Amino acid sequence: MLDSRTYRDIWGVFATGVTVITTDVGGWLHGMTANGVTSVSVDPMLMLVCVDKNARCHPQLSEAGSFGVSFLGADQEELSNLFAEGADPEEGELRGAPFHRGEHGTPILDNAIAYLECELREIFAGGDHDIFVGEALGGDFLGEEIEPLLFFRGGYRRIG
């Protein structure tokens, strides 16, 4: 019989990229590391992120109405770890991490290998998580030669 630990271990062999989801609610900024992120549709350009209902970012994401997705590069483990720690929103700051505003005003981490700015479209219940669906309004990438930060079997990995 399948138990929750085995279920987690099975999903652990599915390599994922690592992102940081950022929000701004009235100047109070928040970020969280997420690998439960995927593209949903190209027309319209929809993506999703799965967020634990108990995560500190959950109420921020619900209230913000928009969010950023910063895709991390292989040399950005420290940023991933920083935003994996639970913390309260900060006024005008993202835990001391350098960031800029995208063309739609979304906080985006500096030096991310790619980013999206998304408008929140729908929230679906998904067990102990909620599934936030966003429509991409803007984004860019730094180039194909930069390796992504990967997560596999409970640890960071590199391509090759």
Any overview of this molecule?
The chain has helices at 4-12, 57-64, 77-84; strands at 16-17, 19-25, 28-34, 37-41, 46-52, 66-71, 90-91, 99-101, 107-109, 114-126, 129-141, 150-152, 155-157. With 160 residues, it is an alpha+beta fold. The strands form 3 sheets. The chain has an 8-stranded antiparallel beta sheet. A 3-stranded antiparallel beta sheet has the order 1-12-13, with no helix packed on it. The longest helix is centred in the first third of the chain and has 9 residues, at 4-12. The protein is globular, with a radius of gyration of 15 Å. The mean pLDDT is 93.
Which consecutive residue ranges, at least 5 long each, have pLDDT under 50? Answer: none
Q: Helical segment tally?
A: 3
Largest sheet: 8 strands, antiparallel
Multimerization status: single chain
Rg measurement, Å:
15 Å
Q: How many distinct beta strands?
A: 13
Bin the helical content. 10-25%
Straight-line distance between termini = 35 Å
Strand order of the largest sheet: 4-5-11-10-6-2-3-7
Round the mean pLDDT to the nearest integer and report it.
Answer: 93
Range of strand content: over 45%
Give the helices and strands as they follow along the chain: HEEEEEHEHEEEEEEE
SSE class? alpha+beta
